[in-house]
């Protein structure tokens, strides 16, 4: 369900309780808001897992429905390319190293950094020689800390490791089983979490298709694998749209995205970053990815996202964010400087005098009031729902 975190999806006890307590779900009809509202008013909170406010909002806008997410997950499950990648070959003669395992997974071009970390942590459990649960948890914690210290500026890497630790060890059954059974259960949950994370991109792409209409113009910023998957799915569904793609300084990742879209025969125009306001009147919607989704419902993303959202908001253009749930981080930045800087070298093409200071930060923070919706593998969320989701993810 859209309101359930990934750590609940495969919890058998929760599924059994839901099967008894949850009535048969149905799609919310945007043509009958009055009857839906009447039901909501008669029963202020028919489902205690969702606040009455969000149920009312769904009744009005038909944005978030359990059936919709279930259909997307079912479609993804039937996709021929949906099988998770095979484990990379590792020299059996070498002692196990979580960093080496992580780097082996990272060699797969379509695998996100956080998913590579999740796969590496699953390998830690399989290769562990611990004889007690306490030893295994300590070993997992050390491996997780090693991965997080590999790149302290990566929000998705830190969040992915933290969520893995919460999901894998979050089962009371471990207290009542012998060690071998408990370890097998941990391995099973680790593999499932990795599978859920791997499928996230395709689920997001399926959920976003209702918002892309024929003849629309979409502005994208920089390179995002999940945004590319969204646009690729729309192209495969034979939707007619064009894309305005920013250059994406300082690393010019927008050039890479424009090349990928050209391969799909999607009409694309490349813009310099400073031409966003000039071109915004042509745009119907903005799609961006995220390095991290923070507790306020805002996002941390590549430099320039904030100013694009400001311009779009001033011109009443919706700003959509596509982000996997493993990027939900326990952070609450108050301003642009209230986060660890991610510095990148910038080439201006000409020598810069040593007395001239250069801003080398590669990402900025976009507050939630400038975002319209977030497309995640948990469902289609408003920014205000993110804090609820984070509570469930990290509780």
TrEMBL record:
Its main location: cytoplasm. Residues 13-25 have a biased composition (Basic and acidic residues). Keywords: Cytoplasm, Initiation factor, Protein biosynthesis. GO terms for cellular component: cytosol; eukaryotic translation initiation factor 2B complex. It is found in: Cytoplasm, Cytosol. Residues 13-44 are annotated as: Disordered. Residues 28-44 have a biased composition (Polar residues). Coiled coil: none annotated. GO terms for molecular function: guanyl-nucleotide exchange factor activity; translation initiation factor activity. Component of the translation initiation factor 2B (eIF2B) complex which is a heterodecamer of two sets of five different subunits: alpha, beta, gamma, delta and epsilon. Subunits alpha, beta and delta comprise a regulatory subcomplex and subunits epsilon and gamma comprise a catalytic subcomplex. Within the complex, the hexameric regulatory complex resides at the center, with the two heterodimeric catalytic subcomplexes bound on opposite sides. This is Translation initiation factor eIF2B subunit alpha. It comes from Actinidia chinensis var. chinensis (Chinese soft-hair kiwi).
